[in-house]
Amino acid sequence: MSVAKNKKRSKPSFSFKDERIPGLWGLFFLFLAFYCFLAFVSYLFTWQDDQDAVLRFSIALLLDSDAEIANILGRLGAITSNFFFYFLFGLPSFALCYVFYLVGRQLIIKKPLSQLSEKLFYITIQVLFFSVLLAFLFSGFSFPMGGGFGTMVSDWLVRFLGQVGTFFLFLFIFLSRFLWYLNPPMAGQSLPEIFNYIKTNVFHRKPVLKESEGLADIQEENLAEINSPVTEITEKTPKVYSPGKQLSLEVGEELFLEPVVHAKEKETLNETLELANSLGSMHKAEPNDSFIMGAGLSEAIGENIDHTEPYDPTLDLSTFEQPVLPLLYDYADQQFEIDREELETHKDQIIETLLHYKIEITKIRATVGPTVTLYEIIPAPGVRISKIKNLEDDIALSLSALGIRIIAPIPGKGTIGIEVPNKKKQMVSMKEVLASDKFKRAKMDLPVALGKTISNEVFVVDLAKMPHLLVAGATGQGKSVGINSILMSLLYKKHPSQVKLVLIDPKKVELFPYSQLEHHFLAFLPNQDEPIITDTAKVIYTLNSLCIEMDNRYDLLKKASVRNIREYNEKFVQRKLNPLKGHRFLAFIVLVIDEFADLIMTAGKEVEIPIGRLAQLARAVGIHLIIATQRPSVNIITGVIKANFPARIAYKVTSKIDSRTILDTGGAEQLIGRGDMLLSVGGEMVRLQGAFIDTPEVEKVIEFIAAQQGYPEPYFLPEFQGDDPENVRADLKYTDLDDMLEDAARLIVSNKQGSTSMIQRRLRLGYNRAGRIMDQLESLGIVGAADGSKPREVLIYDDQELERYLSDLRSKR
């Protein structure tokens, strides 16, 4: 009995001093860090949808409510993230996740929290500082960049010091922190010596280009891979037969091909050695050669004050780096060899088929391309060319091949061409095309690498000279890949200051990855939610906006007394045009429409008319169009469009009628698909194998660019007002207005300025609702039209006038 009692007394009891308690707390803080991170990330994408609900927080919302919440962590996640972002610190709230992680890790490894006190203190100071800084810099933004704390302190500082004084306060804090961290030797040093010390010890402390860290990672990952292929290629180079080599064959003569090193492997070897040397020298670079941004910055603000040097538009984004080739796949495992037996067989079959119809030839020559071999024949004297052309189907039957195409005669040659698909096809990779000297050395305004010709040569064309491009073909034949190859060519060759892309994607999925380039290469309307245009109404507004941009550019050309964008930009670069008179450097604008047929079916003339204007007039001012469709019918590709799109690409189509609609001639119905295309420019026809680029490659290139510093705001097109404001105001009824509109109107008139973010913040409304109220205020004539990120103009000047206006409005309900 006593033993049982002793056992009962010895049973452990709960104690806060238990050594397992800190571990549980550590686990809790780690979970809290992960939970907050997920909630915060989801908030970045769902805050507009959830704000109306969470700003009117109540216990009912937390326990049981019909409110739909978009946050990935539900109601609690929406409430938590909105609390930290909206009421506390804004974007710097992400640092709190790191704080929770540090505390949790310290508790789990059972070390005192006092060790973190200094680090936590500095993190707290930085969170508070950046909260106020972001609120000051982005005061007009609807998203709570600095949160409630930052906004409150920033507003107080602006009222106390003014805008300029607050700016200099932040500049003083930044420079003080910089000097405290660096502590340069000031005593007895001249100013150039101090700057040289800062340049040497800060800018050259790490290898090249901190801003594009992705490049350093790529270099490290690829050095080992580069060394092994170099050794492997130099030690063992297989002898294969080069595509693109012309084969001269006399009738009855044996086919002979001289063994040569594979052209692709030669190019790969040269590229690999060049890349290895460049990367090696980059890693061995001296400190004075490693920081590129410093030189551009000094040129922009220090060494060219008198403006004697030519203007360089790239200095606004001097740290930008163009994508590197290792981001793309080379498909090197798909080695291609010419099948001599196949060539011999096809030669004999062609000769035999022609002899069946009593057609004699004197010579036959073969040119091997990546997917098609061109057999050039010289007929005997007296043979009619039309007789050979009519044997197209018979030759295809004898060769047991699809896609036979007869060119009679080949332009510029006294021969007749017979194109026969290869049984083993070579894939043309985008990396191979972009790495070619022809593309690297291209001195073009808008160079586009489309693929390889039938003679295995890289084909590069200037989009600015086309000047517009029509792309058509059946589903799945390579249109989307072709569009990506065009866009990749521009991204690899051009700086964001030189070209802007307007992307229209009615299918909503093909061009969506490019939305990450919003602050680099994209152009769109200022009030647009997404940088990629998908809505038909927005498409109409965008096309008309481009027409306005075109007219504005023509006005600039007229003032500058020049005829085209190239002459204008040359004058501007030479500083012969005054920016104070409205002159600016003009970037090329490329409009891409991925599925044109859908727009014509839904909008018709509203789309066709502005596109017709742009196609006829926009070339001289640097606006170029690329239109793609999978329905090449006459009601889609109308006469107006065909007349103004001299450059056309046709992928495989289902009928000769479709081919004639695109190219004004047959041939596209005999293509073999998978990127096989016919390009017609000014009446000349070229058969190409399009360069292949896969979606993961596109995403890597886009992520590489998006990770770099971009412009503070995107390139906005001019606003286009589609409807007459007076008609809109007449149709708007009082019952259609938001319940909070009158309060919003009083708030705006009393503050003498209007912005959606102010309505949202002061009236505790969600962004979507505040935006609708602002649109209604504009329709009623209380505020003016939007002007980028600037506050709207208030058109009613005092409260008495507003009350009379609202009273009249209520009486007309």
Mean pLDDT: 78
**Which bin fits the share of residues in helices?**
40-55%
| Overall 3D shape | globular
Count of discrete structural domains? 4
- Uncertain stretches: 1-16, 203-243, 250-306, 724-728
Rg is 34 Å
Number of strands: 18
Number of helices: 29
Class by alpha and beta content: alpha/beta
- Assign the CATH topology of the largest domain: Rossmann fold
CATH architecture annotation of the largest domain: 3-Layer(aba) Sandwich
- CATH class type of the largest domain: Alpha Beta
Please list the strands of the largest sheet in the order they lie side by side.
Answer: 9-8-17-16-15-10-14-13-11
Ends distance:
90 Å
CATH superfamily label of the largest domain? P-loop containing nucleotide triphosphate hydrolases
Give the DSSP E fraction (strand runs of 2 or more residues): 5-15%
Query: Biggest sheet, open or closed, and with what strands and sense?
Result: 9 strands, mixed
Nutshell version of this structure?
With 813 residues, this protein is of the alpha/beta class.
Any chance you could write out the topology, listing elements then pairs?
Layout: H1 2-9, H2 21-55, H3 59-63, H4 74-88, H5 94-108, H6 117-137, H7 147-182, H8 191-203, H9 213-235, E1 239-240, E2 246-250, E3 260-261, H10 263-283, H11 292-301, H12 340-356, E4 361-368, E5 372-379, H13 385-389, H14 392-399, E6 405-407, E7 416-421, H15 430-434, H16 437-440, E8 447-453, E9 458-462, E10 469-472, H17 479-493, E11 499-504, E12 523-524, H18 536-560, H19 565-573, E13 588-593, H20 596-603, H21 605-617, E14 623-629, H22 639-644, E15 647-650, H23 656-663, E16 676-681, E17 684-690, H24 695-706, E18 715-716, H25 725-731, H26 741-751, H27 756-763, H28 767-779, H29 799-811
